[in-house]
């Protein structure tokens, strides 16, 4: 398992049900963490968690060395590495998505923005750790964002090419599909929360929480997502000579005109992974090995249990997170009934405990017979964990747990 965040902790935890798992570089809160470079680990299967090493071609280097890999090569990883290229691919595939245009110069970008109606959506073309998306109802803020992105002031080279999209309105949905180059199978759907503050306010983040299952989504809707969004994209990639073996994560919005693609990611979602994979009743290691070999035979199965994860973030996240604060109460929270705590941005403290080392520090996951029970357990555990400046949203899964939040 390559990576060292909460997503990789959850992946390793589920994979370890049927396999011996080594995590590199991991972190002090993830069992099995080692500092050995991925290329030097002799494993039956390499699973690459984060997007950056995929875009950088790690899967290609491992495959060239004869290693079985779950994760796309650099060519397929461009779906996330370049939002402009992703839009080109899905448009060629006939996938329903937002109207958009790509720019490298300020003047034409501002002129195009002036023709749009709110909400205004401005995205970095390159990787920005999930933070390179500006969604605002203010034209002035959108114009300032365009100038900050293209100048490099906001996200460096990642923003010097940007995409302006039609603003879509409606509930969001995340569907993670496991692909073997020709076939896809869907995992259980999830819904995540990107904004930093309650009520979907504040800046975009890498994700502040998630839940699964999603009450308004049935098996037919998931099948429709594969038929209309994932499989046509796989076919277009094959047409371009790209053998895509890994996760294709479809971020969708249910608009008044029907579902539309917001984005494709090329790895397991974070924090969706933390609420989807623990619900598996089938063998994740076998499924990923089949996909890596180009022959998915398994149809994944899931428990009816609900899972809710709440992200505990450092003070100052997402702009400038404070680090080095001692984390208290983690063991007590993890010992609570129906609770798992996945470690993301943590480091070893001077006295053997854990300290904060990143923006999103811990993923506190509650499970239960209902979303309401899972949510209560997640927040009870979250309230037991402290450090100076800890912050988290208090409304994760609130609408879904009491029957609100569907597509209407």
Averaged pLDDT = 94
Could you tell me how far the N terminus lies from the C terminus, measured between alpha carbons in angstroms?
A: 40 Å
Number of domains: 4
Describe the sheet with the most strands: 5 strands, antiparallel
Q: Give me the side-by-side strand order of the main sheet.
A: 11-14-17-21-18
Question: In what range is the share of β-strand residues?
Answer: 15-25%
Please describe what this structure looks like.
The chain folds into four domains: 75 residues, Rossmann fold; 67 residues, Dna Ligase, domain 1, CATH 3.30.1490.20; 123 residues, ATP-grasp fold, B domain (D-amino Acid Aminotransferase, Chain A, domain 1, 2-Layer Sandwich); 93 residues, Glycinamide Ribonucleotide Synthetase, Chain A, domain 4. The strands form seven sheets. The chain has a five-stranded antiparallel sheet with strand order 11-14-17-21-18. The chain has a four-stranded antiparallel sheet with strand order 5-8-6-7, sandwiched between helices. The protein is α+β, with helices and mostly antiparallel strands. The protein is globular, with a radius of gyration of 20 Å. It has 13 helices and 21 strands. Strand 19 and strand 20 form a beta hairpin. The mean pLDDT is 94.
Topology (SSEs and partners):
Layout: E1 2-3, H1 6-15, E2 24-25, E3 46-47, H2 51-55, H3 58-64, E4 69-70, H4 74-81, H5 83-93, E5 100-103, H6 106-113, E6 120-124, E7 133-136, H7 139-151, E8 162-165, E9 172-180, E10 184-186, E11 191-192, E12 195-197, E13 201-204, E14 209-212, H8 219-239, E15 245-255, E16 258-265, H9 272-276, H10 284-292, E17 306-313, H11 330-334, E18 339-343, E19 346-348, E20 354-356, E21 360-368, H12 371-383, H13 398-401
Parallel strand pairs: 1-2, 3-4
Antiparallel strand pairs: 5-8, 6-7, 6-8, 9-10, 9-15, 11-14, 12-13, 14-17, 15-16, 17-21, 18-21, 19-20
Helix pairs in contact: 4-5, 5-8, 6-7
